[in-house]
Design goal:
Helix content: over 70%
Number of domains: 1
Structural class: mainly alpha
Strand content: under 5%
Number of helices: 5
Order of helices and strands: HHHHH
Number of strands: 0
Shape: elongated
Distance between the termini: 80 Å
Radius of gyration: 34 Å
Length: 163
């Protein structure tokens, strides 16, 4: 079998005739800045601790609000099961309407993009024609979707988390 230079690279061992023990690593020289650095690092750690505590409080508050919202939606759905089902069906129909409206909006943009870019009047007319309608439709759709998809919960009113 022929030896290649790659084989020699991974199999070659260099042996030196004399042995020198490892030298101890010198300790770093402490300068006058060390107490300042220590103070800065301590301040950074305490700032991070405060940030962590604030983030934990924020997560707890958001979780509490979200939990309360889910419970209230569940209670509403239990109180109005037929209305919740109507909201669910209405939301599906409004999704189709929103999709059609969005399709006509994008088609309008595609065909009249030059007018929208060049004319402030054209842009304002476009926003007046579609903006309010689209925003209101989107708001209705969000409300109906939330009311129609609230989770089924077996919750007693005293279990509602308080802020």
């Amino acid at each position: 079998m022929a030896t290649t230079s790659l084989d020699l690279l991974y199999t070659q061992i260099d042996v030196f005739p004399t042995f020198s023990p490892p030298q101890p690593v010198p300790e770093p020289i402490v300068t006058g800045h060390s107490p300042q650095l220590h103070g800065l690092f301590s301040e950074m750690v305490s700032t991070q601790d405060r940030q962590t505590a604030l983030l934990e409080e924020l997560v707890a508050a958001v979780t509490s609000v979200q939990r309360r919202r889910v419970v209230e939606l569940g209670l509403w759905k239990m109180s109005h099961p037929e209305l919740a089902e109507y909201c669910k069906r209405a939301a599906k129909k409004l999704e189709r309407i929103q999709t059609d409206l969005l399709s006509s909006i994008t088609e309008e943009i595609e065909t009249n993009s030059d007018v929208l870019l060049d004319s402030e009047f054209g842009l304002n007319e476009f926003i007046d024609r579609y903006g309010t309608r689209f925003l209101q439709l989107h708001s209705l759709l969000q409300i109906l979707t939330q009311l129609g998809s609230a989770p089924d919960l077996q919750v007693v009113p005293h279990e509602i988390p308080r802020d």
